[in-house]
Amino acid sequence: MAARSAALTGGALLVAILTSGCMAVEENPLNVNSPREDQQNVSSFQQTPEDFGDDPLNLAENGANLCTAQPSVGYQEFTVLVHNEALETFTIDGVSLADPQGLTLIKAEISAANREGHHKAHGGDEGGHGTHSAEAAPVTPEAEPAGPVVPVPANGYNITTHEYVNLVVSISIAEGAEAGTAQGIDVAYSTGDQEFAGTHPLVIELTRGGCA
């Protein structure tokens, strides 16, 4: 009888040990011993540089052809609406004219986006005209950030996620020329150690006498 009790006790102890071992395998929420490839999949949802593409600010969209006379102040301003749709902040590193002929970029600034749209030439004696009408900026002061109220230099400006801003370039005709053209506006920008470049296809013709 004692031998039978000892046997039962030993059997119960063995079952308890086996059961405890099974529970240890089931209770492993951290996957401590999981295969290496499974652990690497944890970072698969993180954004990679390839996700941004070559031009995450989509500067190559919505081009136009504009011609206007240079006003008496000696330069003309052109406005381009920029919208950052990415989940990242981008810093503007440089703005220049694409293939300028007889034109000089005086300055480039960032100002608050407005409902007058982009591709606006203002401050001149004659209004600019292009291949299509100005596009309204889909933004209200309550909805999305819309850039600084007072214009600031474009170089070094951080365009935050979902922010709308106006990129305003001041352009003048080079000394000794009667007119000039540019094939767009080049913008270099970056985030972290990633660099990007985009050309906004705003073809500009600036004259001293007026457009035909």
Spatial order of the strands forming the largest sheet: 5-2-8-4-6
Major pleated sheet: 5 strands, antiparallel
Pick out the low-confidence regions: 7-25, 32-50, 123-142
The assigned structural class equals alpha+beta
Q: Tell me the domain tally.
A: 2
**Distance, first to last CA:** 118 Å
**CATH fold group of the largest domain:** Immunoglobulin-like
Count of individual beta strands: 12
Overall geometry comes to elongated
Average pLDDT figure: 75
Q: What is the number of helices?
A: 3
Report the radius of gyration as a whole number of Å. 31 Å
CATH class of the largest domain: Mainly Beta
Strand content: 25-35%
The level of helicity is 10-25%
Structure in words:
The chain is an alpha+beta fold and 212 residues long. The chain has 2 domains: 2-45; 59-207, Immunoglobulin-like (Sandwich). Helices cover 16% and strands 34% of the residues. The chain contains 3 helices and 12 strands, in the order H-H-H-E-E-E-E-E-E-E-E-E-E-E-E. It has helices spanning 2-26, 36-40, 49-52; strands at residues 64-69, 76-83, 90-97, 103-112, 120-122, 152-153, 158-159, 164-173, 179-182, 185-191, 194-200, 202-207. A 5-stranded antiparallel β-sheet has the order 5-2-8-4-6, with no helix packed on it. Strands 7-3-10-11 form a 4-stranded antiparallel β-sheet, with no helix packed on it. A 3-stranded mixed β-sheet has the order 1-12-9, with no helix packed on it. It is elongated. The N and C termini lie far apart (118 Å). The relative contact order is 0.24. The model is unreliable at 7-25, 32-50 and 123-142 (pLDDT under 50).
